[in-house]
Give the backbone structure.
Amino acid sequence: MTDLKALKQSGFIPQRQEGLFCLRVKVTGGLVPVDKMLILADIAEKYGAGKLHLTSRQSVEIPFIKRKNIEAVRQRLSENGLAPADLRPGIRTIAACQGSEVCQCGLINSQDKAQMLQKRLVDEPERQIPIPHKFKIGITGCPNNCLKAEEHDIGLKGALIPSYNAEDCTHCGLCQKVCPAQAIKVSKTDLTYESDKCIHCGRCRNKCPENCWTGQEGIHLYFGGLFGNTIQAGRILGPTVTDDNAIVAIIQKALSYFETNGRKGERFGRTITRLGWDDFRSYME
Ligand code: SF4
Ligand code: SF4
Ligand code: SF4
């Protein structure tokens, strides 16, 4: 491995300009505490060009670091509980929206899920599965899909499986109005719900003034998305998942498939399409 390749894999990406490097910082869920951001700003002032760049997948980058300063930057990160991103083949930044802790639309706590997956799939070395290429996981708190679940190697999307209780219903029609899938029809005396049209957005539950809609919150997983040189939407394969252990087990199973079948330099979605979705589906089942 060349020195430059090793530096890149350890988070210091060679720039166009000879001898200059762009540091990518390890970030999970796009969340950077203010004290850490101040440290990064200080590093950028001292060793970079006084600016930070926010990547499309929620990492922070500090460009224009001179080679001679890389060790000092590493040291500064490490003594402040920060680290460069690991850019070897494996799971990259786990990106996540604000989710239900902050966002009114959120059906799952995307940030908690991001931290949980980072801990259980990335930070515990004994659990890491050696895969042939980078692997992106994104978590989006509801079908508004701010984090674009279908663009990721594996995307998680919050979902609500709604259920209706007629007891207090006044037939005001609001749930029909807010339903983006035309899954609800309200008349003066009746309400019908077509589950096959439902996209699990939870708006009926969030908006009903009489709390007639409840339901089970969970996660839909999408597999094999790509959004680079080639574009491919990830596909949903199974039912709603509600349990963290099940989510981890499903992702580990997909990673095992990639470990066994993926070629060096091949993205997960390409491995699936090369071998066929039926092959992947039957492995996962
Ligand atoms: S995906 Fe949903 S929960 Fe997440 S930020 Fe967007 S609207 Fe909010
Ligand atoms: S919004 Fe609630 S009260 Fe109004 S029709 Fe729908 S279920 Fe009934
Ligand atoms: S969850 Fe969303 S799509 Fe499904 S019935 Fe309710 S409002 Fe309509």
Summary: The longest strand covers residues 154-164. The pocket of iron/sulfur cluster (ligand 1) is lined by residues 97-99, 103, 105-106, 110, 140-142, 144-146 (CB under 6 Å). The two ends are 38 Å apart (CA to CA). The mean pLDDT is 96.
